């Protein structure tokens, strides 16, 4: 006949801290002769279910990932042919893990008005583990400081300021803790040099977009970052970059504003990248860079066809002249070819494509057309910078 048993459960360590592994040990005590064999199933409220095999009446398992707070444990001995099943209970206490908070600032030292990033890193103290969440309260002393609450993401909280006055600033980062991690505090010092002030440069273009040959003006505005004051002086270097090449220029600041105008940008299916770099002429202000984009479209064109002489007589040499020009605000001389067709009685009797010369003209001659009335039509085919033109037509008469 099977003998009864008593199952005892121990928890080590108990209490444990959040993130720490816990060892559960079940000891099955026989109320009879022999040693119990079989398995023990550990059920943890709010945690995993684990199984261990008895060796000498004892088995141990390891539980990880338990949340904070109490967890009831039930260890159920399965029994064997000689011993009856039994159950033991206990409670796992998981308390919040201790933490340390470290805080740093970058850049340190900084210039007056320069943006500064404060970073607080929350680290569990072993044997605690995991990634803390919650909030950090930054207390920044001195001019331009204050109290700021920021979330903890991935164990890190950040704060950016550009309002700090010159001098030394005490930094305190207070981690508020949560149900799984205890609060902690870190401290440091940040220095703002009283020298050169940081600046911000912005750049815009007008008009935007433009067409090929149309002047575009790039305007850079340079301002001092608070709490610094004053109007920056010096120059701005403009760089306009696209797949077709780079155009550069410069402008002198007046009232914190510099301009650069150019019409040397090719039409571009992808927008140009515009970079404006402030070059200070004194130690009062620091350099800064602004960026923007600008689009240049193909310019529209128009064509005029002229027939000389008109009317003509049979056998007389006739010149067909086409002139292509950009439609304002586009500018420049189109390149490529002009297609010309000559119709009589509704059918095309002659067609030709002629390349434009360096002034936008094409010319070809004919002297063997019979008498009659002809319709002459021409169209510019377009190139990388100019759109195709509408047709232009003219009536040409050849007398007997």
In short:
The chain is mainly β. Helices cover 0% and strands 59% of the residues.
List the helices and strands and how they pair.
Layout: E1 5-12, E2 16-17, E3 22-30, E4 39-44, E5 49-53, E6 58-63, E7 69-77, E8 86-95, E9 99-106, E10 110-112, E11 116-124, E12 134-140, E13 146-152, E14 156-161, E15 167-175, E16 184-197, E17 199-206, E18 210-211, E19 216-224, E20 234-242, E21 245-252, E22 257-262, E23 272-280, E24 289-294, E25 296-297, E26 301-308, E27 312-313, E28 318-326, E29 337-344, E30 347-355, E31 361-366, E32 372-380, E33 392-399
Parallel strand pairs: 2-8, 10-16, 18-25, 27-33
Antiparallel strand pairs: 1-3, 3-6, 4-5, 4-7, 7-8, 9-11, 11-14, 12-13, 12-15, 15-16, 17-19, 19-22, 20-21, 20-23, 23-24, 26-28, 28-31, 29-30, 29-32, 32-33
Based on the structure given, which CATH architecture of the largest domain is correct? Sandwich
CATH topology of the largest domain, by name, is Immunoglobulin-like
Radius of gyration: 43 Å
The count of β-strands is 33
Number of domains: 4
Choose one word for the global shape.
elongated
Strand order of the largest sheet: 2-8-7-4-5
